[in-house]
């Protein structure tokens, strides 16, 4: 069983926008070198979710966790992602997919964001 992760986000034409998502992927790759990870975007940049998934399957992934890198479960996570997941199931019937909740809804993330917001600037 080869487990892999796809960090799925909205996307932007601005390449700097992708930096935080790609930093998460680098951290995963560094801390878990045996766990393949790829970034995927809904629109405006590549790779798409289908392309990133194909890359991981080609590398041998049989279990893929999709992590929606959204602050909340909005339209993209609620409506767009399930349609894309149906397409992935059809394209890769031998692969098991798991979709996590939107990253911003994890209590650890909301606690971290609150801590960051309350930090006193060191001038």
TrEMBL record:
- Specify whether Zinc-finger is a keyword of the entry: no
In alphabetical order, the GO MF annotations are: lyase activity; metal ion binding
Q: Which UniProt keywords apply?
A: Lyase, Metal-binding
Concerning InterPro entries, the annotation shows: CbiX-like, Sirohydro_Cobaltochel/CbiX
What domain of life is recorded for the organism? Bacteria
Q: Which Pfam families match?
A: CbiX
* Listed PANTHER family: SIROHYDROCHLORIN FERROCHELATASE, CHLOROPLASTIC
Q: What is this protein called in UniProt?
A: Cobalamin biosynthesis protein CbiX
Which species does this protein come from? Acidovorax kalamii
Show the taxonomic lineage. Bacteria, Pseudomonadati, Pseudomonadota, Betaproteobacteria, Burkholderiales
């Amino acid at each position: 069983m080869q487990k892999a992760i796809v960090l799925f986000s909205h996307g932007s034409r601005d390449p700097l926008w992708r930096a935080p998502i790609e930093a998460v992927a680098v951290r995963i790759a560094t801390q878990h070198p045996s766990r393949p990870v790829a970034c995927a975007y809904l629109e405006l940049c590549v790779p798409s979710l289908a392309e990133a998934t194909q890359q991981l399957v080609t590398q041998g992934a049989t279990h893929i966790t999709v992590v929606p890198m959204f602050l909340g479960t909005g339209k993209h996570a609620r409506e767009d992602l399930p349609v894309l997941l149906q397409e992935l199931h059809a394209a890769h019937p031998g692969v098991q997919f798991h979709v996590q909740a939107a990253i911003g809804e994890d209590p650890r993330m909301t606690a971290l964001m609150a801590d960051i917001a309350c930090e006193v600037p060191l001038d």
